[in-house]
Write a structure and sequence with these properties.
There is one protein chain. It contains 13 helices and 17 strands. The protein is an alpha/beta fold and about 425 residues long. It has three domains: about 110 residues, Tetrapyrrole methylase, N-terminal domain (Cobalt-precorrin-4 Transmethylase, domain 1, 3-Layer(aba) Sandwich), CATH 3.40.1010; about 100 residues, 2-Layer Sandwich (Methyltransferase, Cobalt-precorrin-4 Transmethylase, Domain 2); about 170 residues, Vaccinia Virus protein VP39 (Rossmann fold, 3-Layer(aba) Sandwich). The strands form three sheets. Strands 13-12-11-14-15-17-16 form a seven-stranded mixed sheet, with helices on both faces. A five-stranded parallel sheet has the order 3-2-4-1-5, sandwiched between helices. Strand 11, helix 10 and strand 12 form a beta-alpha-beta unit. Helix 12 packs across helix 13.
């Protein structure tokens, strides 16, 4: 093992009140730490790390050393650290994998134990090691962690057409095979997967380069990480043609037409929003266009028709719109309390119950959030405006648009009160 790459902070051994030292390391069985780290370990009394770290460093610990296993929930681990500090222990030495500040333990400690002086001794993190094994320049690498995290940032990297993506995996929900299959399902097949398993372990390390089809059938050893490299990527769409969507059988015109769709998205000001609720998604065209143009956005789509389930799935896969949460059922009957609260909503349908639908949206919309509705007649325009006004919404926009032979549409926008 190489010595620590760099020092992230300086410290004085004579004044070590409530200090945590986080030492980065790899899987090598006989680590060669720097002189500074060896001095620190020799003077320590309380140590912590994962089971794998303890197996590696056990012979280096001084007699009488006490060890705290890092296991979930981490709150219990931090409480144990606090207990040691309350008993007069001045410093705790934590062993971690790679660079502790790269999706690592030091980042968590910095957030959860802000009153403690934190010092780090980084080693190469796993994505750096993999890039070096491949002799692959990685200054353009986009790192994503799926270790105990949802798909959101990974999906965003794909939608934004990142050419080089580094992924930290986990052993259950985000394995290399599941990642590869997700990419294939949504049409992101122009990538090749470089897989690193047990990096730094002198006997078990393995590095492979695979097609996504090969990776989808793979059972990789843990821990592992991967780099996705694309040869060529198609351009991101801006305005998906209407005929590129599957529509309701016998009702091909029941879709928010592309020009209206894009103007509606503009009215929602999605670059500054975080969560969109699409109520009455039908074919899913608004949700899909929003997700592809603004992939930072969490999109939750509702549809009463059972046919909408398959339509959304097929259209989202067809256009590579990963990560849309679609819910089938009557919006007014659904329990939405577990869903992320929206700061913008698109009302694609209201089932003859405008007042009730707007009232429910008013209940969940964040202060200052907006609702956009496309009125197809003067009557529906007046209904929306009167119901919104009765609920305290403030009208912000009324834009009349006519396209080809279709009836004119009025794009309406109202803002939820700030309190």
């Amino acid at each position: 093992m190489l010595p620590s790459c760099a020092r992230a902070a300086t410290f004085n051994f004579a004044t070590r009140m409530k200090q945590i030292f986080v030492i980065g390391m790899s899987d090598i069985s006989q680590p060669e730490f720097s002189l500074e780290v060896r001095r620190l370990v020799a003077s320590g009394s309380v140590f912590s790390g994962g089971k794998r770290h303890r197996e590696i460093v056990q012979s280096l610990l001084p007699d009488g050393a006490r060890w705290v296993d890092i296991t979930v929930p981490l709150s219990d681990v931090f409480n144990t650290y606090r207990k040691f500090f309350s008993e007069g222990v001045e410093s705790i030495i934590v062993f971690a994998s790679g660079d502790p500040l790269f999706y690592g333990m030091a980042s968590t400690l910095r957030r959860e134990m802000a009153d403690v002086n934190l010092h780090t001794f980084p080693y190469f993190h796993s994505l750096q090691l993999l890039a070096h094994r491949l002799s692959l320049p990685y200054q353009g690498l986009r790192p994503v962690s799926l270790t105990g995290r949802p798909w959101q940032e990974f999906d965003r990297a794909l939608i934004e057409r990142s050419a080089l993506i580094g992924v930290l995996t986990d052993s259950r929900l985000h394995t290399p095979s599941l990642i590869a299959q997700r990419m294939l399902d949504y049409g992101y097949s122009s990538y090749r997967m470089h897989l690193g398993e047990r990096l730094g372990n002198e006997t078990l390390e393995r590095v492979r380069s695979l097609s996504l089809s090969e990776a989808a059938a793979l059972d990789a050893q843990s821990p592992n990480c991967l780099i996705l490299e694309a040869d060529a990527l198609p351009p991101r769409p801006f305005g998906i043609p209407d005929d590129a969507f599957l529509t309701l059988e016998g009702r091909p015109g029941m879709i928010t037409k592309m020009p209206i769709r894009l103007l509606s998205l503009q009215a929602m000001e999605l670059s500054a929003r975080r969560v969109l609720w699409d109520v009455g998604f039908c074919t899913g065209s608004v949700s899909i266009e929003a997700r592809l143009l603004f992939p930072h956005l969490a999109v939750v789509a509702f549809e009463v028709r059972e046919e909408g389930r398959q339509l959304m799935e097929q259209n989202a896969h067809r256009h590579g719109a990963l990560g849309i949460t679609s819910i089938i059922g009557n919006f007014l009957d659904l329990d939405c309390h577990s869903l992320p609260r929206p700061d913008v909503a698109f009302l694609g349908g209201y089932g003859g119950r405008m007042a009730e639908v707007l009232s429910k949206l008013r209940q969940f919309l964040l202060p200052g959030g907006t609702v956009v509705f496309n009125a197809v007649s003067p009557e529906s325009e007046q209904l929306f405006l009167s119901c919104a006004s009765a609920l305290g919404f403030k009208p912000e926009l009324s834009r009349h648009v006519a396209i080809d032979q279709y009836h004119p549409i009025t794009i309406l926008k109202c803002t939820c009160p700030s309190s």
